[in-house]
Specification:
The structure holds two protein chains of two kinds. Chain A is 0% helix and 52% strand. By secondary structure, chain A is an all-beta fold. Chain B is 0% helix and 49% strand. The chains are: A mainly beta, B mainly beta.
């Protein structure tokens, strides 16, 4: 079975500051990793994913995440956040070769203040 | 592409009543998933369909829960004899199932309140 731990339930930051949202996972088999974002009053949207290849993956709005197999981590970073990044962020894993069902962490609420 | 839709968006019911939710996936997607999300938690997997076949069910899914996907199109999730612990957001997601895609598209959810 897989599990995901998001170490911070809430992260408040000021606009234009850097941010890191932490995610660690546990699995006895190889997994794929994802970050989903949920903006206020909207559904979950895929932000970025790691399937294979380069361990650093990027989203179109400036977020990046790095897969670290030895530390079983997939932390999400952005060098300079905007007010519009205020949302809840969920880290998720799925077992390679499985049904693609997602196992989610509890989420991190990012609040960007002016 | 109109996205995944769910109906109703909100449902308030009394304990012991039955409720049914509907999910319409993106039209060309052959995989459909149901998740449940409670306050302060991430979504938890409930069940998964590939076309019309229900291929996996979570142990979270008690006998009071049943899901169908007739003809591999829309899906319904029914909860019989609702309990207060069933209060949650029920999320539906679909994916194309193409190799190396692994991208699930989520609907807006149905919020169930059991009084």
């Amino acid at each position: 079975a897989q599990s995901v731990t998001q170490l911070d339930s809430q992260v408040p930051v000021f606009e234009e500051a850097p941010v890191e949202l932490r995610c660690n996972y546990s699995s006895s088999v190889s997994v794929y990793l994802f970050w989903y974002v949920q903006y206020p009053n909207q559904g979950l949207q895929l932000l970025l994913k790691y399937l294979s290849g380069s361990t650093l993956v990027e989203s179109i709005n400036g977020f990046e995440a790095e897969f670290n197999k030895s530390q079983t981590s997939f932390h999400l970073r952005k060098p300079s956040v905007h007010i519009s990044d205020t949302a809840e962020y969920f880290c998720a894993v799925t077992r390679q070769g499985g049904s693609e069902k997602l196992v989610f962490g509890k989420g991190t609420k990012l609040t960007v203040n002016p | 592409d109109t996205g995944v839709s769910q109906d109703p968006r909100h449902k308030i019911t009394k304990r012991g009543q039955n409720v049914t939710f509907r999910c319409d996936p993106i039209s060309e997607h052959n995989r459909l998933y149901w998740y449940r999300q409670t306050l302060g938690q991430g979504p938890e997997f409930l069940t998964y369909f590939q076309n019309e076949a229900q291929l996996e069910k979570s142990r979270l899914l008690s006998d009071r829960f049943s899901a169908e996907r007739p003809k591999g199109s829309f899906s319904t999730l029914e909860i019989q004899r609702t309990e207060q612990g069933d209060s949650a957001m029920y999320l539906c997601a679909s994916s194309h199932g193409r190799q190396n895609s692994y991208e699930q598209y989520f609907g807006p959810g149905t919020r169930l309140t059991v009084t």
